[in-house]
Amino acid sequence: MHTLESKYVRDQISRRGARLNDRSRNPAGEYVLYWMQSTHRFEENWALRFAVLQADKLQLPLVIHQGLDPTYPHASDRIHSFIIDNARELTKRAAQLGHHYRFVLRHRRDDDRRVVDALAQRAALVVTDLYPTAGVAERSARFAARCAHRVVAIESHAIVPSGIFEKEEYAARTIRPKLLPLLPLALQVVEDRCARLEIPQALVRDLPGEPLDFSRVSTREAVASCDIDHQVPAVPMPSGLTAARTRLAAFCAESLPRYAERRADPNDDEGSSRLSPYLHFGQIAAAEVARAALASGHPEQATSFLNELVVWRELALNFCLRNPRFGTLEALPAWVHKTMGEHRDDAREATYTLEQFEGAQTHDALWNAAQRELVRTGVMHNVVRMLWGKHILQWAPGYTEALAWMVHLNNKYGIDGRDPSSYAGMQWCFGKFDRPFYTRPVLGVIRSMSLKRAREKWDAERYIARWSA
Ligand SMILES: Cc1cc2nc3c(=O)[nH]c(=O)nc-3n(C[C@H](O)[C@H](O)[C@H](O)COP(=O)(O)OP(=O)(O)OC[C@H]3O[C@@H](n4cnc5c(N)ncnc54)[C@H](O)[C@@H]3O)c2cc1C
């Protein structure tokens, strides 16, 4: 096991980090500030590890601050509840571990929005998460531009440090042979610990922003008090590291032994890990998930699982980090643009408005069932997600609307939405990371997926009955 001071940790951090401004440290700083944005955990959190090392080096305490705003796109009961429930668990764990963690909820849009700025003023430096989606990169850049002191961002999403891949990778087949040999080194275990200096109580009382007192408020009450979309309800999925670990253990024991086969059946709720919401919010480290899969005693199935968890997931991260146009059609390769140009005016089998898609009002019962699964549960099975996306492409009035509406629906209802894997998955429907196939109307040479053929491959009627209107 490596210590935090080891060369191994230094090397890892140097390949995960970026300075977000060229300011120096604040010599009068009273603490180091870790602004937790996308990695909502204390374990295997590289930004936190760097912040702990900086605090020790400067002989300062560490403040871990997480804020939740009502203003991010798609802010809803669903997303807020999942974050707040996890913050409740983090508060308890912080007390046990000895971290000073504070969660500040901004209820209304006109509440003081600059708690992090006020905290940063008194910090020696600010460390935050490096993450390309969910508005984190833009928020961090704006903050770093106005912060008087040094701001550093460190990535903890990937197992293999994302900085190793400096350019955009073309496809899974190009990143796979580079990623997999690096996995054993990247999976080595590091001993996590708190900053050595405890924070004085007088300083705690004097810090700006009032942390949410979880002993006085339920998650439901906290969410209800926020100026957010209350039409997208919370889902019953338990949030937090404990729930993620329970799910991981069950998956490794019961489902992983037949993962490759079971993952193909959308009626099999336990066929895949269903860890995407926990991975998206950084509640569990992908490295912990990978180690558990490798230790399960099913090497072939673990390889198949790691192809998703590592190859596709880190291809998605590389895409969003290296291609700033990841949310637009401009991110697509030239052959897709050529074929879209040739088929732009093809007659559509049907066209729908965003409202009709959102209300599951298409002519196809299977597509409608998929949309209802997403709206009701916050997740959708991978096989169905591909069919769902391919048909938005075919039934929207144009390609631009198709992508924009897909992003809207995926990110509004998906509890795992707004993730690099969200954008990679949606762009895959348009041909990203893929190759040309036979020409068809509207799709051109983009790979098609047939709802009719899906009905022959698996029990779609059962799925439709389950997610009926
Ligand atoms: C149109 C479309 C939209 C998608 N939107 C999302 C999304 O919003 N959030 C999201 O996390 N994934 C998304 N995906 C990818 C994939 O469908 C989900 O990651 C997967 O279904 C999650 O279920 P699971 O956790 O049981 O996966 P498992 O099969 O157990 O895989 C383990 C983990 O690997 C990652 N993973 C699995 N498949 C992929 C993939 N194809 N690409 C990238 N990473 C993958 C996920 O983090 C997942 O949790 C989308 C795919 C498509 C085609």
- CATH topology assignment of the largest domain: Rossmann fold
User: What level of helicity do the residues show?
Assistant: 40-55%
Low-pLDDT runs: none
CATH architecture descriptor of the largest domain: 3-Layer(aba) Sandwich
Taken as a percent bin, the fraction of beta residues is: 5-15%
Let me know the number of strands: 6
List the helices and strands and how they pair.
Blueprint: H1 7-14, E1 17-19, E2 31-35, H2 46-57, E3 62-68, H3 77-97, E4 101-105, H4 115-121, E5 123-129, H5 136-146, E6 151-154, H6 172-179, H7 183-186, H8 201-206, H9 219-224, H10 241-255, H11 259-262, H12 276-280, H13 286-294, H14 299-322, H15 334-343, H16 354-358, H17 365-377, H18 382-395, H19 399-413, H20 420-429, H21 451-457, H22 460-466
Parallel strand pairs: 2-3, 2-5, 3-4, 5-6
Antiparallel strand pairs: 1-6
Bound molecules: flavin-adenine dinucleotide (FAD).
